[in-house]
């Protein structure tokens, strides 16, 4: 017979009223409390706490306090990650974030789901569905990433977006519900590389 934790991680119905899950939550809340109470001078200590909290991270990861999550231990974060203030990651299912990903303020990733049937729901059973974010992604402020969503690589998600379906690679997407606005093209690359070249010229580089 599977434990409640095993059921949760298998994306099956489970009960959160479980001693093992309660202990995992206690651990994550302790680490978050310590992290959120740090000062800006305690950068190295913040890194230690984040590496204890998450299942795996890159070497370079920066999260602005305050930060909230369910477990942390179900989240994998790639190299060169940045999250602005008030990020929330509810990781009852696996959350995978690629490299070079940036979050604006108040971005929320939510893997939990609750049964539509009210009887089953009020009896306390729930489930989770994994969220995956690719490489080189920028997610704007107040965006909501819903359960089961995969966001491709090289994507920009507009602020306030409510992402309910998968987003392919190399697009700008926004809105509620979130939809693809346009592709990111070679013209975009040329435009921004021209501005970058002008920037370096200003500094004599």
TrEMBL record:
Q: Which UniProt keywords apply?
A: Acyltransferase, Repeat, Transferase
InterPro entries, per the entry:
Hexapep (IPR001451), Hexapep_transf_CS (IPR018357), LacA-like (IPR039369), Mac_dom (IPR024688), Trimer_LpxA-like_sf (IPR011004)
Q: What is its EC number?
A: 2.3.1.-
* The keyword Nucleotide-binding is annotated on this UniProt entry: no
By its UniProt entry, which SMART domains does this protein fall under?
Answer: Mac
Domain of life assignment: Bacteria
Q: Which Pfam families match?
A: Hexapep, Mac
Instruction: Tell me yes or no: is Transferase among this UniProt entry's keywords.
Output: yes
Q: Sorted alphabetically, which SUPFAM superfamilies does this protein's record hold?
A: Trimeric LpxA-like enzymes (SSF51161)
Give start and end of each Maltose/galactoside acetyltransferase domain.
5-59
Family note: Belongs to the transferase hexapeptide repeat family.
Task: State the name under which the record lists this protein.
Answer: Acetyltransferase
